Amino acid sequence: MYERLDKLRAEVERCKRKVEDDRQRLKAAEQKLQEAENTQILADVGALNLSPEQLADFLKLVANGQVGSAGTVSTVTAVNKETEVETKDDDDYDLEGLEDEEN
User: Fold this and answer.
1) Residue 17 and residue 23: Cα distance in Å, rounded?
2) Each residue of 9-46: pLDDT tens digit?
3) Residue 90: is its pLDDT beyond 80?
4) What is the C-alpha to C-alpha distance for residues 38 and 10, in angstroms, rounded to an integer?
5) What's the 3-state SS for 26-60?
6) 24 and 60 belong to one structural domain
7) CB 102 within 8 A of CB 79
8) Cystine design at 68: which of 7, 34, 72, 82 (Cβ 3.0–4.6 Å)?
């Protein structure tokens, strides 16, 4: 008479176990993603070949909004005691070759 209730209780328990397993898999996947993101960030920062002081100066400029957003290039001069880092405006690039192609 209570067979149906027993089956439903068993189904609930199976679902609870599955949810817990899924949570554990999600946690592991999130951890792998975080590690991959950290590795990529370290590789990108390392490719800039900046000293720790220069990197700190650059990050301050970014935080203050003095560096253009992705896809735009702003004039930024970050001066360190030893080295100067500068980027150019789009207008600073030589566009002579493009003018010849248009005409």
Assistant:
1) 10
2) 999 999 999 999 999 999 999 999 999 999 999 999 99
3) no
4) 42
5) HHHHHHHHHHHHHHHHHHHHHHCCCCHHHHHHHHH
6) no
7) no
8) 72
Give pLDDT, residue 66.
Answer: 86
Residue type, 102: E
Residues 32, 1: one domain? Answer: yes
Question: What is the per-residue burial (b if ≥16 Cβ within 10 Å, else e) of 58-81?
Answer: beebeeeeebeeeeeeeebebeee
3-state secondary structure (DSSP) of residue 11: helix
Q: Do 60 and 95 share a domain, yes or no?
A: yes
Residues spanned by the domain of 62:
51-103
Instruction: Count structural domains, the chain.
Output: 2
Clarify whether residues 100 and 56 are in a common domain. yes
Q: What is this structure's pTM?
A: 0.53
Cα 96 from Cα 49, distance rounded (Å): 31
Find how far residue 53's CA is from the centre of its chain: 21
